[in-house]
Every structure is written in structure tokens, then in C-alpha cells.
Amino acid sequence: MTETRGTHPSEPAGPTGNDLHLDLPATGGRRAALMTALREAIRSGRLAPGTRLPPYRALATDLGLARNTAAEAYAELVAEGWLTARQGSGTTVAERAEPVPPARARRPSPRPGPRHDLRQGQPDASSFPRTGWLAAARRALTVAPNEAFGPGDPQGRHELRTVLADYLARARGVRTDPDRIVICSGFAHALRLLFDGARPVLPPAENGPLAVEAYGLGFHRGLLAAAGVTAVPLPIDEQGALVDELARHRDVRTALLTPAHQFPTGGPLHPGRRAAVVDWARGRGGLILEDDYDGEFRYDRQPVGAVQGLDPERVVYLGSTSKSLTPALRLGWMVLPDHLVDRVLAAKGEREGWASALDQLTLAEFIDSGGYDRHVRRMRRRYRDRRDQLVAALAASAPHVEVSGIAAGLHAVLRLEPGTERSVLKAAAYRGLAVDGLADFRHPEIDPAAMPAVDGLVVGYATPPDHAYAAAVEALCAILPPSV
Ligand SMILES: Cc1ncc(COP(=O)(O)O)c(C=O)c1O
Predict the structure, then answer these.
(1) Residue 477 in this model has a pLDDT that exceeds 90
(2) Euclidean distance between the first and the last CA atom of the chain, given in angstroms as a whole number
(3) How far apart are CA 86 and CA 60, in angstroms?
(4) Which residues surround ligand 1 with Cβ inside 6 Å?
(5) pLDDT tens across 241-285, in order?
(6) What's the pLDDT tens digit per position in 453-472?
(7) CATH top-level class of 128-370
(8) Which of 343, 364, 227, 211 lies closest to 289 in space, CA to CA?
(9) Considering only the top CATH level, what class is 1-106?
(10) CA-CA distance, 462 to 36, in Å (whole number)?
(11) Nearest Cα to 213, choosing from 266, 171, 149?
């Protein structure tokens, strides 16, 4: 006799053990159908050796079968060697029930990392403040209102926007209130939002070609190209972008800059140029996109404040936790001129589709409790020590190599003799040292007459964990060519 689901006809049936999805063939008896489905799941590898199956009673309930049918199917599969039944530990997939190997691997297995890693782009992953973050998450989620666990507000949690408005004013000189902040999933997401080709966010006047610095991140250039944006390169020197050049490009109304710390060459934008670019934006009716990716990390003096503070209506300020905490968090913020807030929100849609509201609450609590400031200060000391170690090692073993961009940030630039960058990179790869060449960051369309190419290395001194740093620096010194 077939049993009904549950003990009472009106009682909802529900799984009573681990969930197990099985498609029973419609033909044949129920017991045979169940055995076929289980064999198939084991053979295909979907049920790996050692996997614990639900108790037969629970499986019978879930599949609408008689208990006896499920019990007999299990017993027969044990007899056939597909399953193992042990008193007290239930029924598991037998260790010998090897699945058929898949025809081909879906993705190549990840290659082992380099022996020494000095690539730019990430903070020391081993220094993520796990304990402080977990404590902040516990506090934040304990007091979060129920509404926080619903679909998110595309502007971002007000708790985070409120503490960010204070933090950015205090630490970065940004002038804003929480209503002009929109939370996003890092800088890359902000770029995608602003330049979504299908639904342009920037008003037509600001949505023409975009001026970018002649050296920058190729990944960001790729995002802009994919959105159909023409990126016009501006030459740079040790005082940052030559913003006077903007006047030559009559069709450019928007400029993307890294004023606190030119990426990757490392200088801050000269104060005169900061004022000049704001004047340009006012005169042209244009906009500055300020990428403040690592502004907290300046070692010998106070951090350079944000250009946004000079004119909040002409600057979109873009910040991120990718350098200060971890790129794994995917959290960032846009501080917008008034006229762009609704446009950006419309582009985000009705619900937050990117940035986890629970991580936003945790970050708000982490900042509010002082944990973020403490972490940044601790990392600033640690990175400054590493920078000093790097500079001292180079002075001792390669004094002819000029090091620049060391006043701030998480990377330094080493100048190489013209024409030697590729061979130095080859030597690095041979020694198992991963490091970036300067050429990778150069805009392919910059006119060499306006800005000659420079050979160099971009050394990410924040990347390795502490214990691996000295060996990485030693490997770097060993591949630098002797002076000519
Ligand atoms: C130049 C530059 N801008 C912005 C960012 C931040 O990007 P995201 O927030 O998308 O991780 C980075 C990397 O951390 C960067 O190197």
C-alpha cells in the first residue's frame, strides 16, 4: 500500500533529512525506478563516494513512495555494492562506487601561483582584519532591522552612507551628505554604471569622449571600450596629468583622473593642476571622475585630500575598499553631484543587484566603531616598513635603479634602461617572480612625441604575506641588470 505524505492529510509534506534531488523514470515499477535514479546519480559523480543519503523514510516521504519501496531499493543497492549501510551512521555512497570520469574537464585546473609575487593590485591578503570584521558583522546583524534582510535599496544602506559621509569628510576632505552617496560594487562597477552603453547615465553634454591618463589600468580601459566610450589619453609627468591639454580637446567634457596618487606612476596631482582641472570643468560645463583608489595610504606626509572638496558639483568621487581592506569584498561608493544622483539610481534599477546589504551593514559598523581607522593605520605602518625595506635593498644592490612613486600607495615604480623591460620581465619569470612591466599600463594611442615610452617595473610591495616579502625583494634585486 502506498503511504500518504505526512501523518495527517492536511499536514504539509517536507523533507525530513538531507535534500536529495532524483528524477525517477516514469516507466517500470517504483523500486526499480528509484534504483535506476540512484545508480545514475552515483555513476555520473553527482553523488560522490562517502555522501550520506537521507534516511529511507525521509526519501520515501519526499518522493511520495511507500517506505518499503525505499527501504528495499537501499538494501538492494547495498547488496550490489553501490551503497554502504552502517548501524548508527546511516546509508552512504560506497567508496568503491567510482563515478565515470567526465569526458573532459570543464575548466583547466588553476595553475600554481608564482614563487614570489610582487604584482601590483592587492593589499596583503593575510592581513585582512578577520577578528574585527567578524565582531562587526555579529554586532551589525544582531541589531539590523528585519527590513535589512529584504531586497536592498539601490542607493545602499543608510547606515553605511551616514558613516561614510562623516569618514570621507574627516579622512579625505570630501564634502557630501549621505543622500549624495550611492553604494556600488567597487570602482569597476561604478565605471560600468556611469558608462552603460545602453542607458547612458551622464547627460549628453558630459557623455562624449572621456579624457584618461596616459598610464592606467588596462582592465578599466577595456571596460570603457566595451561600453563604446572613446578614451582620449592625456600625457602625464611627475606632477600628474597635464590637465592643460584638456583645452585642446574641444569635444571632451569629462576626465577620469587619479589625483591623490597617479596610477601607476605614483605622483600626486600638483596643487596648481588640481585647481586648473576644476576651472576647466567649470568653464566647459564638464565633469571630473576622481578615482581615489588608495588615498588613505600616504607615508611621509598627510594624505592628499580629494579634489571633490574643491567643487562637489563638478566631481564624481569614487572610492573602494579594494586597497584598504580587500578586493574580495566588492564594495565601493560614488559621491555624486546633485544632478547625477537620480540618474545613477535609475541605472541601478529598483533593487540592489550587486552590493550585499549585509556586508554594507558590517562595513558601516566597522567604520563607526573605529575598526577601519585602526586597520588603515596599522597597514600604513606595515606598508611603509615594506617600502623602506625595498628602497634599502635597491640602494644596496642596484643603486643605479631609480625608484619613484614611493610617497604613497601600495606599489613603487622602478625605472629601467630604455629597451630592457621585456628582458627583465623574462628574467623575472625565469626566477618565479611575478611583477608587472610599465608598458602594460600605457594607453596604446598615446602619441610617443607627446609622451615617450618609459621602461620600468611596477612593484606591488603589499602583495606577499610578511613571511614571503624578504625573499621576493631578494628575487627582484637579483633580476635587475647591473648598471651600464
Ligand atoms: C587604478 C585603480 N582604480 C580603482 C581600483 C579599485 O577597483 P575595484 O574597486 O573595482 O576593485 C583599483 C584597484 O584596486 C585600481 O588599481
Answers:
(1) yes
(2) 93
(3) 19
(4) 121, 186-188, 217, 258, 263, 291, 293, 320, 322-323, 327, 332
(5) 999 999 999 999 999 999 999 999 999 999 999 999 999 999 999
(6) 999 999 999 999 999 999 99
(7) alpha beta
(8) 211
(9) mainly alpha
(10) 55
(11) 266
